[in-house]
Structure prediction request, 157 residues.
Amino acid sequence: MRVALYPGSFDPITVGHVDIIQRLSKHFDKLIVLAANSARKKYLFNSEERVQLIEQIFEGQPSIEAHCFDGLTIDYAKKVGAKVIVRGIRAVSDFENEMAMATMNKSLSSDIETLVLFSSPEYHHVSSRFVKEIAMNGGPLKGLIPDNVITAMKNKF
Ligand code: PNS
Prediction:
């Protein structure tokens, strides 16, 4: 069984993430979307909320699961039998961090590969950070995040 792990903050999940997940899921038997829960980071949505939002979006697609974790991604990959970690990149500015992370993960576990998927051009400008800024200031969220996430964001602010 080919299992892939797609880790991220997903605070909140955007249409760009959804696009990556849908494109990716075609190539694996199981895709685990892993919401990070780092004690060092402040999240708008707690990990249970982020997992729930992701589950709602992919309801009816049993090959896509949402989990959360608070350790090393590589350890979680081993735990679930994923040989592949996937990350999406939008622009050159994402590249440096992704390369450093992939190289570190490779040095931590040489048999797990990081695959990079380029975001679709129509989502190059979409980021969770911008979405939060827009939401905080009462701006329009349509087309940036799925409808269930819009509702959840409105309840937060
Ligand atoms: O969506 P993000 O914030 O870019 O995701 C970053 C994330 C959560 C994938 C990354 O910080 C991560 O994997 N954190 C868990 C700790 C870990 O494994 N660090 C990688 C060692 S380089």
